[in-house]
Amino acid sequence: MRDNPEQYDHRIVFDTEYQPGDSGIQAVHCLCAIDEVTGQEWRLPFQELQYMKRLPFPTDDNTLLITYAGAAEFDAMRALGMTIPRCDVFDCYYEFLSWLNCREVTGPPIGMSKGGILNACRLFGIDTCETSHKDAMREICIENTRIPDEHMD
Q1: Which of 14-23, 30-39, 64-73, 115-124 has the lowest mean pLDDT?
Q2: Looking at residues 113-141, what average pLDDT do you find?
Q3: Which residue has the higher pLDDT, 37 or 115?
Q4: Are 56 and 26 in contact (CB under 8 A)?
Q5: CB-based contact 76:28 (threshold 8 Å)
Q6: CA separation for the pair 35, 13 (Å, rounded)
Q7: Residue 114 and residue 6: Cα distance in Å, rounded?
Q8: I want to staple 66 with a disulfide (CB 3.0 to 4.6 A). Which of 1, 13, 17, 125 is the partner?
Q9: 28 close to 16: Cβ distance less than 8 angstroms
Q10: Angle 39-75-98 (CA atoms, 0-180°, nearest 5)?
Q11: pLDDT, tens digit, for every residue of 13-59?
Q12: Which residues touch 151 (CB under 8 Å, ≥6 apart)?
């Protein structure tokens, strides 16, 4: 990993949504990503992802992938049969947990995970959705093998 994220030609923030199963990911719904350097965005539903053998964006030595709980993203890639990239990864979840473990932080609001992404955003003043909206979207992913079209935007 390089000392400065600015040294990468691509800094790609990405996330997947999926339906969990008893032994891992049952169905991948979509992948969303944005390259912080170029501004290029990707919003790919399962119907496009199912035919891909690799991620649709650069994953070379000059790319930094940025995730939150990246193990889930890599599990989604495995479920799709994609090749796992060999580039640098910055996982904000583990960085946030490390930050929390070095400080005395009061507990999260009721119903929110201490290390959850919404808590991380709120602690650092980053605008985010309401917990109830995230919970509703999570339930849609859990209950459906395919996300209904009206929820894909």
Answers
A1: 115-124
A2: 72
A3: 37
A4: no
A5: yes
A6: 6
A7: 29
A8: 13
A9: yes
A10: 75
A11: 998 988 877 777 778 888 999 999 999 999 898 889 999 999 999 99
A12: 137, 140
d(CA 99, CA 35): 25
Two tokens, residue 141: 């992913």
45-to-18, 39, 128 alpha-carbon distances in Å: 11, 20, 22
Q: What is the 3-state secondary structure (H, E, C) of the chain?
A: CCCCHHHCCEEEEEEEEEEEECCEEEEEEEEEEEECCCCCEEEEEHHHHCCCCCCCCCCCCCEEEEECCHHHHHHHHHHHCCCCCCCEEEEHHHHHHHHHHCCCCCCCCCCCCCCCHHHHHHHCCCCCCCHHHHHHHHHHHHHCCCCCHHHCC
**Structure-block tokens of residue 7:** 């040294």
One-letter amino acid at 77 equals M
Work out the angle at residue 15's Cα, subtended by the Cα atoms of residues 33 and 138, and round it to the nearest 5 degrees: 135
Any long-range contacts for 94-99 (C-beta under 8 Å, 24+ apart)? 96/120
With CA atoms as reference, report the closest residue to 68 among 112, 16, 28. Answer: 16
How would residue 125 be classed by pLDDT, with cut points 50, 70 and 90?
confident
57 with 33: CB under 8 angstroms? yes
